[in-house]
Amino acid sequence: MASRRAPLVLLFFLAFVSLFAVHASAAGAESTFLLAAARTRRKDPLAGLRYHTGGWNISSEHYWASVGFSAAPVFAAAGIWFAVFGAALFLAGCCYCCCPSRSTSYSRAALVISLLLLLVFTAAAAVGCAVLYDGQGRFHGSTSATVDYVVKQSGDTVDNLRTFTGYLEAAKAAGVGPVSLPDDLKGRIDDVVRKVGSASDVLAARTASNSAKIRNALDAIRKILIVLAAGMLILAFAGLVLSACGLESLVYVLVFLAWIMVAATFVLCGTFLLLHNVVGDTCEAMGEWVRHPQERTALDDILPCVDTAAATEALSRGKEVNYRLVAVLNGVISNVSNADFPPGPPPSPPLYNQSGPPVPLLCNPYTPDLRDRACAPGEVVGPDAARQAWRANVCQTTGIAGSEVCATTGRVTPSMLEQMVGVANVSYGLSRYGPVLTDLADCAFVRRAFQAVGKDHCPGLGMYSEQVYRGLLAVAVAVLLSVLLWVVHLRERRKRSDAREMELVAPALPMYRHGYRVEEKALLHSPRRPSM
Q1: DSSP label of 343
Q2: Whole-number Cα distances in Å, 23 to 12, 286, 304, 367, 385
Q3: Is 182 helix (H, G, I), strand (E, B) or coil?
């Protein structure tokens, strides 16, 4: 049996739908109840940095501006790093080309300390990359499980709706002999089948489209994070090795690459901080909606209940069809099958030489005004029980198909038995899917589903999105400091190398005095000056 829970767009599903779907109009987004109003009270740059008071509403540009502003420090860090360090690189290049100078004064302490710090921050970058890689795997698994849950719930609901319309279609053809539902009721059944079929098709198409977009986005995010983690790790270790070896040209190439990659990491870090805040807002909004279900909230623009009017009409029409169909069957049983065979000439339809114990009636689940009805003693419930009870009343027949006459004791022919069981099966199916339509009509399924989401999915999504954000921040800061230490350590190494070169060259230089070269020990062989 398909699950009775209907589809929902879960928290991450909601966040991505808002990014890919066309936003609802501002008028349509207005709600009588603000969701997560306290949590979403953030400064809104579109409103002059006044606090956002519209609550959770992913169809509102003010909500996105306020939640984006919460990640502004990280985006600002990316901009400052890119601008300041880029300017520093440009000035350093100009000074190196225009005013080359070499100093032989170096600090041994600075050389050692820079190397130790470089080892520490390279290790920190490695730890950050490990945290990032682990976090992205967990985040991808959690979001994939959430989307799978959405798709399953949607598929179950679509199956329920289509199964229900199948029973309605079967009710049109159900009956006993020539007796069936009236034509006007069959026409109303066609209208309900058309509306419910349209609602289920829209639901299936919407879920398939949104889930495909989300899966593509998740795959792209996972690849970006994996490549970024691997690239930053390789960059950090390559910079450590090359700076320790004094390969100046290669280190400056890595510095240029790191300038771009650190800025990109900061931007991605800010994006995940924004996403983490949206996940938390959505979880709280769903929890508040469950505690305070409203006629109109911002959730309606993203997660409308299955067409409430269509579901309500289908529920009402299903009850009417069920009642009328069982009434038709019981009328045939009471007026034909249980009628006594009168003495006289050979019988003619609807009499077919029936005799024996009376056939039990099928329980009608509704009263004429379509309220629930308790079964009377002796009535059978369900197709299996009905088949078993009615089988005892089956007679052996003679004659051609459609004009059978009982040749033995019994009140039901084999063909009648199959038709009667068919009616019982349709009645049972319509009764079985009544609660499903009730849930669809009053959106009770959403409350139950959101409760499950908040318990099973929200904690993991919030925790793993935060882990990715922290991993990105750690990698960005560690590599940023490592880049600075590359330059410092390389500069000290170059100064030390220049100093040692001067120490080796200085003793071999010839001595000059007043512009003339003085041979070694030449003064020892010069004549002594006369004493005064």
Answers
A1: S
A2: 17, 19, 14, 46, 53
A3: coil
279, with CB counted inside 10 A (0-12, 13-18, 19+), is buried
Q: Which residues, in sequence order, are CB contacts of 126 under 8 Å at separation 6+? A: 233, 236, 237
Instruction: Name the residue with higher pLDDT: 81 or 311.
Output: 81
- The whole-angstrom distance between residue 339's C-alpha and the CA centroid of its chain comes to 62
Q: Which two tokens stand for residue 436?
A: 């499903």
Give the C-alpha separation, 85 to 83, whole Å: 6
Q: Which are the contacts of 497, defined by CB distance < 8 A and separation ≥ 6?
A: 246
- In tens, the pLDDT along 232-286 reads 999 999 999 998 888 888 988 999 999 999 999 999 999 889 988 988 888 888 8
How many CB atoms are located within 10 Å of the residue 209 CB?
13
Long-range contacts of 360-364, Cβ-Cβ distance < 8 Å, separation of 24 or more: 360/389, 360/390, 361/330, 361/333, 361/334, 362/326, 362/329, 362/330, 362/333, 362/386, 362/420, 362/423, 362/424, 362/427, 363/326, 364/322, 364/323, 364/326, 364/327, 364/330
Nearest to 389 by CA among 369, 360, 366, 411: 360
* Residue corresponding to tokens 């030390």: 496
- Whether omega for the bond prior to residue 178 falls within 30 degrees of 0, making it cis, is no
| CB-based contact 393:356 (threshold 8 Å) | yes
Give the C-alpha separation, 397 to 412, whole Å: 10
